[in-house]
Specification:
The complex is a heterodimer of chains A (302) and B (266). Chain A has 302 residues and is mainly α. Chain A contains 11 helices and 2 strands. Chain B is an alpha/beta fold and 266 residues long. Classes of the chains: A mainly alpha (302), B alpha/beta (266).
């Protein structure tokens, strides 16, 4: 029984962790390329969840069911979130590209507050029930106390998204352009890369991952409101820093470490203290490895 | 000298101010097809600023930069973004090495082909016949270029692990990968030993002879400049003080005073 408890905590930690990782990737990719902490990233995740909720409501009225709702609502939410991410960069960050670093950071905080309050006014301040879009998998029933179907779907979906991202960055043309832009933006332009386009694509990819996270969490937790982006954003940002900001495998590792720390602390000590442990781990790792688990110390350019 | 029609790059009265400082002052310069033109001058004369204006990193205060791509209509490129300038057919290297250090040697060259291929993300994901053919061609051409600069055996090494001279040659290969008709080299021999400089010398000649590419270079190594240049422009304090063949420049008293006089080995 003891062992099964542990396994249960472990799986739920991995589940949380992979959601954190999905969102953290958006932070870390954007930071890697333009050294900006995109504080409005959590809001993109929240908007993804809201769009999925609205679309699935509409589809239910029209008589769609089960998996088809999940797929359609998911796609529309992804497109919507990508459009938000793209627009966000165009109006709030691109005009400040050559401004001092603090200016886009303040712009990011402003966009975060704006989007939260926009959803608060346009939708509702209340918690909304999120439909259970992920169907129960009959085969898993005997093991439901260890791993639920929602958890399994979350783990598989996030793993697939991360693998797709890795392949994209390693092999695709746009991935090479992203790596080049990250290493030296001026030189990237001089070998003919349209850096503005690369940055737009980075925001779009980050937003897609955040939206996937939003949909998965919505249907896992079962309720959403306009404020969910804030806490998720803080946690994912923590995960990104934990792994070494700017480092893509680092964001995944950081997310998983954070999720496991929270889940094990909640299980063995008390769920009231889970955040304490999450941030305690952050403090500990930053003391021992200031640049994060996989981050490299930045050498000044000579 | 050559006809008006064959001029690939024409710069007229180019001026660049930084606040109250005039870094480049009314420079007029042209480069014709198949030429190697050198731009020399003491440190701080404004040579690199001139390059930065021409390649779109800075927008010049005044003047015209006209690019005449062979077989296409000429364009004024003042203030055009660097990636657009590169796509038009002008590539450059830097004074300090700016390779993508954490990519392989091959990837560095492949990225130079970026603006010459058109594979979309969708095409790459679906691996359409067209995107595969393009990828194949990119790889083949990149290997060819590495062969030309003698880096073929190091194709899979990380750029940061190459020797200094090797990194310099890789920068040239990467610039060549963008298929330029005009190549701008900013101090290509800086920090090289005499052996490496001689190899560079023949590499530059070989590029010019093989591909009908014109070359504009900034260089402090007088032996290299005198050996390979068809024409030389001399700058001092942002102004052009002389222009001519290597023989004329060598004999020009203004140049000797401003520049060569300081160099004991020239």
């Amino acid at each position: 029984m003891e062992y099964e408890n542990f396994l249960g905590y472990f799986v739920s930690g991995l589940t949380r962790g992979s959601i954190y990782a999905l969102i953290a990737l958006g932070y870390t990719m954007v930071y890697g390329i333009i050294q900006l902490i995109n504080f409005a990233h959590g809001e993109i995740y929240m908007i993804g969840a809201f769009v999925a909720l609205i679309v699935s409501g509409v589809l239910t009225i029209y008589g769609f069911s089960g998996v088809s709702i999940l797929v359609l609502a998911g796609l529309i939410a992804i497109i919507y979130a990508a459009a938000y991410g793209y627009t966000l960069e165009r109006i709030a960050y691109r005009p400040l590209r050559s401004a001092p670093r603090l200016s886009p950071l303040i712009s990011a905080i402003g966009m975060s507050l704006f989007l939260q309050n926009y959803v608060l006014l346009a939708q509702t301040p209340d918690f909304l029930r999120f439909p259970q879009l992920i169907p129960e998998i009959a085969l898993l029933q005997p093991y439901a106390h260890v791993v639920g179907s929602a958890e399994l779907v979350i783990l598989i979906t996030s793993a697939l998204s991360m693998i797709a991202l890795t392949l994209l960055i390693k092999y695709a043309k746009i991935g090479k352009a992203m790596r080049a832009t990250q290493q030296d933006m001026i030189m990237a332009r001089l070998v003919g890369i349209d850096v503005d386009r690369v940055i737009s694509v980075t925001f779009i990819i980050g937003s897609i991952l955040a939206a996937i996270g939003g949909i998965l969490v919505g249907s896992y937790i079962g309720q959403i409101n306009f404020y969910i982006g804030f806490m998720a954003g803080v946690k994912a940002f923590t995960a990104a820093v934990l792994g070494g900001i700017g480092n893509i495998p680092g964001a995944v590792l950081g997310g998983l470490v954070l999720g496991l720390a929270e889940s094990l602390a909640a299980g063995y000590i008390s769920s009231a203290y889970e955040d304490v442990f999450a941030f305690g781990v952050l403090v500990l790792i930053l003391i021992l490895r200031p640049s994060g688990l996989l981050g490299k110390a930045i050498k000044p350019k000579v | 000298m050559t006809d008006q029609a064959e001029k690939l790059l024409e710069v007229r009265e180019l001026t660049m101010d930084f606040g109250g400082l005039r870094a480049v002052d009314s420079i007029t310069l042209d480069v014709s097809k198949g030429e190697i033109v050198a731009l020399i001058g003491p440190n701080g004369a404004g040579k690199t600023t001139f390059f930065n204006c021409v390649t779109g990193i800075y927008t010049p205060t005044r003047g015209d930069i006209i690019l005449n791509p062979p077989g296409e209509k000429s364009r004024r490129i003042n203030g055009l973004k660097p990636n657009r300038v590169t796509t038009l057919g002008m590539a450059r290297t830097f004074q300090n090495i700016r390779l993508f250090q954490n990519m392989t040697v091959l990837e560095n060259v492949m990225i130079g082909r970026h603006c010459r291929t058109s594979t979309s993300i969708i095409g790459a994901v679906l691996r359409t016949a067209r995107s595969r053919a393009q990828e194949r061609e990119t790889i083949d051409r990149s290997y060819d270029l590495l062969d030309q600069v003698g880096l073929l055996p190091f194709a899979d090494a990380f750029a940061k692990n190459l020797s200094y001279g090797g990194q310099r040659r890789l920068e040239i290969a990467r610039a060549m990968a963008t298929e330029p008709f005009l190549l701008l080299l900013d101090e290509p021999a800086a920090g090289m030993n005499p052996q490496e400089t001689r190899e560079l010398d023949s590499l530059i000649m070989q590029i010019r002879n093989a591909g009908e590419i014109a070359i504009l270079l900034i260089e402090h190594d007088m032996k290299l400049v005198m050996n390979i240049s068809d024409r030389i422009y001399v700058m001092e304090y942002g102004k052009k003080i002389a222009h001519g063949t290597p023989q004329q420049i060598r004999a020009n008293p203004k140049v000797i005073e401003a520049y060569l006089g300081e160099e004991s080995d020239a």
